[in-house]
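Task: encode each sequence below as structure tokens.

Item 1
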Amino acid sequence: MVLIDGKEIAATIKTEIADEVAKIIAAGMKIPHLAAVLVGHDGGSETYVAAKVKACELVGFESTLIRFEDKVSEQELLDCINSLNQNPAIDGFIVQLPLPKHISEEKVIESIDPKKDVDGFHPVNVGRVVAGMPAFVSATPFGIMELLRRYKIETKGKSCAVIGRSNIVGRPMSILLSQKGVDCTVTLCHSRTKNLKEISLNSDIIVAALGMPEFLTGDMVKEGAVVIDVGTTRVVSDQTKSGFKLKGDVKFDEVAPKCSFITPVPGGVGPMTIASLLYNTLLSNQHKIYK
């Protein structure tokens, strides 16, 4: 069993990006600039955005953090997004989710210029992914594809179960895995899939992205399977200083012994999301998606 080290791969990608930034600076070209918009003081969002800012510094990017209180109006947030769309200094930006209930996440996502949508959530980028065109791919699916590629995990002709159908992970994941060159035969499963255990038992690769702690158990996985755990649910724990611990969607102790490759939680898919966001920003800076 090989434990897929997302921290190590993410660090490698950041080093590669930093090398590219050094070349950009040496050539006197514009330094990549990533902006983040944070509404409110959600603990998880605060931590995630702080990590993004730190990562920008690490690779040599410029970064901007724009804060709003929970009570900000939807129009004020949309005006900010429009300003970022028009700002030539900004190569890409993200609006951290979730947003307060009085603000439409759909309207916010659609208001972002697809050319600066480094989160890959805009319908234009999603559509381009479906069509197999150059696009900003959402960070988690992009990160998973990089893990598979860098660990040289064979995908051609393999059967794959993607468990979870969210627009951020499950659906784009199923599309990427089925594209030419990757060539998996994909079954997209969800909470209403009746024969889910049968499907997972017959799958060479399983991507668990349901958001249910320890959902995938040992009796649902065949010997030699590749298992990618996307779940990151906080559960109460008296064994940590914070009072909680992260649980994946996979019951690791049962599943890992049967796997050829598996991602841990934490330290697997998670670290790849920020690395992927930085990579998308570099692509935007170099105009490699939208010429």
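Item 2
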Amino acid sequence: MFTFPDYFYDLNLFSTAFRLILAAVFGGIIGLERGASRHPAGFRTHILVCMGATLAMLTNQYIVEIMAIGTADPARLGAQVITGVGFLGVGTIFVTGRSKIKGLTTAAGLWASACLGLALGIGYYSGAFIAGALIFISLALLPKVELYFYSNSRVMDLYIEFDSFSNFKCFKKDLIEMDIIIYESSLSKLSPVISGGISLNLSLRIPKSSTRSQVLDFINSYNGVYLVEDV
């Protein structure tokens, strides 16, 4: 396996600057993808998280090697960083009024960025380079793969508003006749636009003979339905 010269791993001014610069570069690359997609934690946030985690591991190495404290645990600060970033990631996660969860990928990206920083901080360069590339690929390229499979999925999560409960009952009956399975139906906390109407979150499984667009067209044209959103 390829290894860098010893001075890359020793705690000196060069290795300290090199690791922190790499943390800024890798954190920035990951953050740019999130920021370009208009997510709450973007370019600067990921740089700060990655550099902070790197500094924590550098401090760990300093305590163990330079201060020569025999009882020092070289993994202790890193463990605290992972826990702390977990709380930071929670701040990026929220549930919309239509019961759609957003921010999970950004939170996972922050956590992965912190782990990347820990690897850089201790001088695990090969792991950091490989992980940095894979993290960026996961965030930038895999959404296209994800979209392809989701667009061909037989499961649909919908937010629908009806003008009356009686029309919704007829709607459920017609879905069953079309071999569409209703996994779950629940009243939404959102108030419907029309007075006296109802708003629901529905999880459906459509048959192979139907497409998602066909089902959406049917629902949009159904009597009593005035709002449909695929969530």
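Check on item 2: DSSP finds eight helices and six strands in the chain. The chain has two domains: 6-148, 154-230.
End of task.
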